[in-house]
Amino acid sequence: MGTSWGLYTTLTGILAVLLLLSAMEKKGALDSRQVSVIAVLAALCAAGRAVTGVGLLFLQPTMFLVEITGFVYGARVGFFTGAMTPLISNFFMGQGSWTPWQMLCWGLVGVSGAVVKALFPQAGNKTLTAVCFLWGYLYGAIMDVWQWTVFMRPLTWQTYLLTWAAGFSFDSLRAAGNLFFCAALGHQTLKILQYFHKKMNIQYLER
């Protein structure tokens, strides 16, 4: 039964990622600029996650970068950058049935940046920092669904709460790390990405 639930949970994560990718693709194919941005930022995020993840599993200076990517470049670039981050870094940290769920979570972090931009066009680093802090807990709550369905029996809301409570301290560490890194590096990162976004658009128009 445990194996079956593990398989179902993995397939659910894969299906969710594929559905979101399909929804993103309906807006049209990514252009070369967007592909370049995704490749560079996903590699940077994956490297940061892999390097720090060895000894600082819950303190990784990458989630804020995915969120800001979505804020500057939009939901599609944010989602693809986020989803690629664990896919690449897990080749060093370990692949498993958790990978699709991590891809889903990280992709949604990127989408959340675009949502913040749509709701609050003039939002600055304080707003992004607050959202990134919340993602420390949201990420844990979503990943707990995977852990709950794979390892816990019976599957009741009480056992889910036990799973969530067991990971709360780790979620708090992740949230604190997100808060620190976004507060310390977010403003400058936002300026850099906005600069390159503007420069790329100008060069595209001048062709």
TrEMBL record:
Keywords assigned by UniProt, alphabetized: Membrane, Transmembrane, Transmembrane helix
Signal peptide bounds: none
GO cellular component: membrane
Name of this protein: ECF transporter S component
InterPro entries: ECF_substrate-spec-like (IPR009825)
Segments traversing the membrane: 6-23, 35-59, 71-92, 104-121, 127-146
Biological classification of the source: Bacteria, Bacillati, Bacillota, Clostridia, Eubacteriales
UniProt keyword Transmembrane helix present: yes
